[in-house]
Amino acid sequence: MSSTEQGTSSAAPAEPTTAPESAAAPEVPESFYYVHGKDKVVHKVSAGALQHSALIHGMISNLGYTEEQAKANPFPFENIDGDILQMVVDWCNQHKGKPTPPEDTNLPKQKEKLFDLVLAVNYLEIKELLTYCCKQVAMMVKGKSPEEIREIWMIPTDAEDEAAEKEAKKRAGKEAAGETAAAAGDAK
Amino acid sequence: MTVSLLSLPSKDLQYSLSCMEIDELIALSLCSKRTKNLVKSSNRKIYQSFVNIDEECIGFDIMTGPFQKIVSLDIFDSYIELGGTDMKTFWIKEVFTQSDWIAHIMSIFNESIINFLTVEDVSMNYLDTVKQFIPKCQKLSIREECSRKFTKIAFLKLCYIAEEVKIDRNIFDDDDNDISKYLTLNLKSVSFVDWENPFKLELADLLALNITDLTIGPTNITEKDLNRFLKLWMKGICRFYRPERIYLSFRNDIIREEVIRRIKFEIVDDECLLTRADGKKLLIDIGLTHVALLPAQIMPIRLLSLPSDDLQYVIDSMDVSDLIALSLCSKRTKDLVENASIAINEIGAEVDENRINLNILTYKFHGHRSTKKTIKFVLREDCSIDYERDDGFQKWENTEFTLSHLIYHFLSLSNLPVIGISELPKLKIKSVNPITYLDTVKQEIPKCQILKISENCSDDVAKMAFFKLAPMAVEVVKVKRNIFDKENDISKLLSLNLRSVIFNDFENPIKVTLDDHLVVNIHDLAIQTADITERDLNRFLKLWVKGNHRFYRPKFIRLTLDEEFIIRREKVFKGIKYEEVNEDYDDGYQFRVDRGDGKELMIYIDDNHIVFKFKFGMP
């Protein structure tokens, strides 16, 4: 579970309204870190939950932040949409200190977000979640015909690929010709 | 007073450009190539563009922003007339055609799409020209005043350049029901509206619909047809239904109960939500005079844009049937599947009555384990191809591929050794009915490596299959039963110029005479079980020694006689000069017979088994 607040990457986030939930009461006080996505909404996540992400785990180890420093400097992930980051944070919190079951029912169900989720999870290096997401992507075409797969996975036909390639070549040719003409004009 | 504009510092120059109106920028762009590039680099945007196509003059209106003034240009070959001013202004470029003018304007504003395109009644040939100089537009409308014939042709010619097509008259012939061919086009958004002439629409039209967003009004489709459509949708008939929105309006009130009669649904926000067994949903909004059908679509994702590791993981997570389907999507996906951990170990076809089953044996590797699966495609009597699935998923029907395309595809995916890329490794004739279906087989499978004619085939079918199909077998023809009658028509088959033939029937020995032996034209012939006398074998050898068959083609003849029969060497070699050789001399052959022209014949005899190997026997 996570809490979210409006803020900016530079501003320190306020205390979360609800306490983070953990599977077992920690004996030593748990440290927390802060992350935000494109929407600048800051998420408070425990160090245990963030261990799922090899990228963030590496950042924490390298920076050696204290909790105060971490609070003042949330990790910025400007390339990840806020709602996607929220899903990732939720998942990390739910699986804090637990192995991921092969069929994880607690994982995001929104198919329309799947592509962005895969990109985000790949970037954050969360191996278990990535595995599950890729399986979900594979499941999208279970039992489908090539025509259906083309639509579901937006795969261009050979003719479309060839046309796009031709178009790209044409455009590159035109741009090159334009540049040559401009250079010649400048020379005059 | 003149100013050397181009000598201004670049910031000032850009500022000057930003102060200019759109029409002034167009005029500047026409001065020289440099000024054209300058205008282009100013990145000025057009808010909306409207093009009206008339053969004599193309109207090009440019809106610079919401509630901003419109710049109207009348484009002719070699000049543009600028409208909206008190004085008539012309810009002339002798070498420019209408097409060049449009390309120029689009280019300087870095635009690739016209927002609104309207077509007047122009000549049919001119429509092709339109397509060339306006490759893309957002909305296309064809004037109501145009004839039905013209509107139909203009629609078909231009619909693919538009994201949205709007036709404000009923152009369809109700008797021919020609609306259906327009509805099956793969288009994004089409609107047919003519309140004076309702559109005739039937259940079949809705089922075949391929337009993503369709509006038709008014239509006279019945509630009963709509109800049947919904029932068929629930049954999964339109399994992958492309439309995302169908909006039908009516002149008369709709009886809601009739439309949703005996259909299970739930009410969501006053609309009916149908949920099918496979989880697909369809939302229906039924008003007094309209019905809107909104099939919920799977949100597509751009698979090929995934990072390569993730893409590979997705591929690895797929099962063989889905990988096969993916490989057929495009060349790029085929390459992806080629690198996946699957192997195609066998490809074969079986002719069963008037169908051809194409079977592909595949293995998918999971670390050290592998799973085996046979993929089956069926070419049906109506020449359509189905992919029959054994994993509980509905089969694909009427796939877009031909059998030869599939054979080529799977051969190139496999690592099977093939001489020709479209050579099917195995073709089995299980049964054929009618016998003329053999011609279809020959057409669909032009070459194979091994042809097997099954024991289930009737004699006539087997013989005909042999005559028609044996020449296309590159390696071997196997006939699994004695198909010859007492007339001893075996000689007709033996005289065919073939590479390798095996006749196999242990219960009914195949009668072979000396004459049959002499006409053999098969490179490698094996008969199990052969009914031939030692005397005939002896006479054959004598004739061979005399050189009667100088250009005898066979290289091997292998005969297996009845298992109770023991071939007596002395009877076979009676009166023939032969030499016993060491078994190491030539692959275990025991005897050698030489002839005057230097050719030699190696012979192996073992109980009921005799093999002739003709050395240098090939012409």
Automatic annotation (TrEMBL), chain A:
SMART domains: Skp1. PANTHER family: SKP1. Pathway: Protein modification; protein ubiquitination. This is Skp1-related protein. One of its GO terms (biological process) is protein ubiquitination. Belongs to the SKP1 family. Residues 165-177 have a biased composition (Basic and acidic residues). Residues 8-25, 178-188 have a biased composition (Low complexity). Residues 38-96 form the SKP1 component POZ domain. Residues 127-170 form the SKP1 component dimerisation domain. It comes from the Eukaryota. The lineage of its organism: Eukaryota, Metazoa, Ecdysozoa, Nematoda, Chromadorea. Probable essential component of SCF (SKP1-CUL1-F-box protein) E3 ubiquitin-protein ligase complexes, which mediate the ubiquitination and subsequent proteasomal degradation of target proteins. Regulates cell proliferation during embryonic and larval development. Residues 1-25, 160-188 are annotated as: Disordered. The keyword Lipid biosynthesis does not apply.
UniProtKB/TrEMBL annotation, chain B:
This is F-box domain-containing protein. PANTHER family: CYCLIN-RELATED F-BOX FAMILY, F-BOX ASSOCIATED DOMAIN-CONTAINING PROTEIN-RELATED. The lineage of its organism: Eukaryota, Metazoa, Ecdysozoa, Nematoda, Chromadorea. It comes from Caenorhabditis nigoni. It comes from the Eukaryota. Pfam families: F-box, FBA_2. The gene is Cnig_chr_V.g21581. Residues 2-50, 300-347 form the F-box domain.
